[in-house]
Amino acid sequence: MNDVVSYKRDGEIGVITINNPPVNALGHAVRQGILDALAQGTADDDAKALIITGGGRTFPAGADIREFGKPPQEPSLPDVINQLEASKKLLIAAVHGTALGGGMEITLGCDYRVALDSAKMGLPEVHLGLLPGAGGTQRLPRLIGAKAAMEAIVAGKPMKAAQLQKMGVVDKVVSGDLMAQALDYARQLVAKDAPLRPVRDLEVKAESADIFSDFEKSIARKSRGFLAPFHCIKAVQAATESSDFEAGLKRERELFAELLKSPESAAQRHVFFAEREVAKIPGIDKKTAKRDIEQVGIIGAGTMGGGIAMNFLSAGIPVRVLEMKQEALDKGVALIRKNYEATAKKGRMTSDQVEKCMALLDTTLAYDDLSEVDLVIEAVFENMKVKKEVFGELDRVCKKGAILATNTSTLDVNEIAQSTKRPEDVIGMHFFSPANVMKLLENVRGDKTSDEVIATVMALSKRIGKVGVLVGVCNGFVGNRILHKRQHQATQLVNEGATPAQVDKVLFDFGLPMGPFAMADLAGLDVGWRIREGLREDDPANAPEYNWLDALAEQKRWGQKTGGGVFDYAEGDRTPRPSDVTAAEIEKYRKEKGIETRDVSDDEILERCLYVMVNEGAKILEEGIAMRPLDVDIVWIYGYGFPVYRGGLMFWADQVGLDKIYAKIKQFHEEAGEDEWKPSALLEKLAGQGKGFGDL
Ligand code: 3H9
């Protein structure tokens, strides 16, 4: 026995307790400890039955993910579970917290399962690009049927104790003191001489011949590019194809091994840790005091302000929205209600919940009514003069200690902060549209923003269901700054001879949810056009040249919302279709500029659109705008749908090889001379040293 697993007897019941904080992950020491404790319990003549449970906050939450990719150490988890299942003494799992992955698989190796009502169990391996590889794909179908097991394993969602009891996984749900009741339950089982119930002895058949292929088809779109969901299906299918349990286990091992060495799983495991790492800010202690946020003020009831408000309302935090005119307030409130009601219609919330959220919403036309809020988020027109006026007012009315945040996507947060006498309380909170849906929140640290404000806003991001990433001040911050470079290359590629549909297809096939031009149509071509028009007026010498996108915008082809932009859209259909108008405008532009078109290959499109992003990402790191490569990864995954199975922009670049990317960037710079191709010094250095961003 070792420190992480203990064996103790309570009357006639032996109790094996796993103690490996924080989540009792099943690392090598735990696996060995379980076998040792099992041996002790087996040898203990006074123990009539055994309970296995987790100490601290949870039953094991799975295999130790940090061990994957390292040389395997015996005993393996499948072996441990096989030995538990082979125990000649009744074995009962007593579950609280989150019994996930290998943790749930342990419970499936037991004869009986008792769970606290607050406990959850599930097989989330699919989210790590894996499958339940310790018998889960063979035992769960035997307990609940092949179809239900396949669906649960591919969804990878933790399920509640009551639901698990209905499904036939959990035998007894208890509340209050888990251990006392598990001991009681074990004694009752002993008293009635309850039989051993190894799950492997149960039979399983596919409900019908087509369940596997039908299910595969049904997830094809959602799971595009992922490997694990399809391997999960194959493993469950194997359980139904032979009555030989060992043969099924062997097939599961083979499929698991394939996934473990796949680039998709490496990427997804990187994302798992990156998601947790982004919340940790180097230099800011996690014990830093956080301010209480109990009421929020929002300036602006437009689409953005309304979307931002919904995040807080949904999290149970009261919001007071300020506008200049009653009409704008009424419109904004109506839009929020409409959005909630649409969600309720889809069955994702009840009408009671809608009313609860709406009851937390309050409006005002007067700045003085914001004197008591703990946080204000400004979401007004993107104009420095206007923002400064707003912050001047906020400085005047807000209480001491209130956090003053701007939702600007382009403007200098430091300059905004200077319009107050408390720049240490000012921060950027850049929500992505639609703000009530998109998970990313770029929190922008100004030069003077205090650690306390940063810590509060980062914690608040999690509380409202966002993934907060801390970034520095620059035009476009991390996400849009990189996006702009890609959009520019996409347009250049079309100028040179590609079609918008070709460019979009290449990036869609790479795994992005849509291509750059479909994205421009979704955001609205008028947005960029108005900004360019403004620049042409204010600073003609440095203004961007007029191109075919401007010509389309001038014709009110603003994208999906006007039925046509770069692409045409049929009424009520978001499928982009090539447009003759666009083709003619592109042709006209090329003629005016005297551009001789050429065949542009798909490879060139991919390289130019993505390598320019990598170069910009490296510059962003160099300048300290992003703290770590993983911050850039998370921004692009949650803000723009960069495929999770590629691990994010910088992780993907490492897989391609920075030397290869650097050589191409240098070549593009020599050919095109564009500033965006000037190689980042950091990229050059890493490429020269044969290193990747992951080595930073
Ligand atoms: C598996 O089981 C494979 C088997 O089928 C087959 C094997 C042969 N390992 O998330 P938190 C760390 S695959 C190592 O912030 P929460 C985590 O990184 C596994 N470390 O807490 C963090 O570390 P740090 C299947 C792990 O309360 C700390 O614990 N299981 C693991 O918000 C706290 O985590 C899963 O996929 C792990 N398995 O959420 C479950 N889990 O403090 C993955 C966590 O240094 N885990 N850590 O940043 C989770 O979903 C959540 O962590 C959980 C707790 C819901 C448990």
Automatic annotation (TrEMBL):
Keyword Hydrolase: no
Keywords: Fatty acid metabolism, Isomerase, Lipid degradation, Lipid metabolism, Lyase, Multifunctional enzyme, NAD, Oxidoreductase, Peroxisome
InterPro entries the record matches: 3-OHacyl-CoA_DH_NAD-bd (IPR006176), 3HC_DH_C (IPR006108), 6-PGluconate_DH-like_C_sf (IPR008927), ClpP/crotonase-like_dom_sf (IPR029045), Enoyl-CoA_hyd/isom_CS (IPR018376), Enoyl-CoA_hydra/iso (IPR001753), NAD(P)-bd_dom_sf (IPR036291)
All residue ranges annotated as the 3-hydroxyacyl-CoA dehydrogenase NAD binding domain in the record: 295-471
Catalytic activity from the UniProt record: a (3S)-3-hydroxyacyl-CoA + NAD(+) = a 3-oxoacyl-CoA + NADH + H(+)
Residues annotated as domain 3-hydroxyacyl-CoA dehydrogenase C-terminal: 476-569, 605-690
PROSITE patterns: ENOYL_COA_HYDRATASE
Compartments where found: Peroxisome
UniProt pathway: Lipid metabolism; fatty acid beta-oxidation
Primary localization: other
PANTHER family per record: 3-HYDROXYACYL-COA DEHYROGENASE, PEROXISOMAL BIFUNCTIONAL ENZYME
Binding partners and assembly: Monomer.
Family, per entry: Belongs to the enoyl-CoA hydratase/isomerase family. In the N-terminal section; belongs to the enoyl-CoA hydratase/isomerase family.
Protein name (Swiss-Prot/TrEMBL): 3-hydroxyacyl-CoA dehydrogenase NAD-binding domain-containing protein
Organism: Salinisphaera aquimarina
Lineage: Bacteria, Pseudomonadati, Pseudomonadota, Gammaproteobacteria, Salinisphaerales
